[in-house]
């Protein structure tokens, strides 16, 4: 299985480039999409679509959307962000979702310990 990784962020291009360069992570991603790259940020799905385009991925159902911050774990945010894009699955960090998070709280999601 070939795994393609892309990052999407609400940060601007300058800051994102600085962070990825400082961490030495830029080579892990086939695309790095920032809010500068799209007309509308989250919860619009455009950053994901731009990442898919850069990675030459044609079927959004094969994509996984990951959330690492508490606001992106809220059930009301998932329909706006991950589901609106048509992602097949979502990955949630349990620590970001709260200590009482359960899989039932996040349909079509997987919770992982961090």
Defining key terms:
5 strands; two-stranded parallel ribbon; Rossmann fold; 114 residues; alpha/beta
Write up this protein:
With 114 residues, the protein is an alpha/beta fold. The protein has 2 domains: 1-58, HAD superfamily/HAD-like (Rossmann fold), CATH 3.40.50.1000; 61-114, no CATH class. Helix content is 33%, strand content 18%. The chain has helices at residues 13-23, 46-55, 70-73, 77-85, 94-97; strands spanning 6-9, 31-34, 64-67, 89-93, 109-112. A 3-stranded parallel beta sheet has the order 3-4-5. α1 links the parallel β1 and β2 (31-34). The longest helix is centred in the N-terminal third of the chain and has 11 residues, at 13-23.
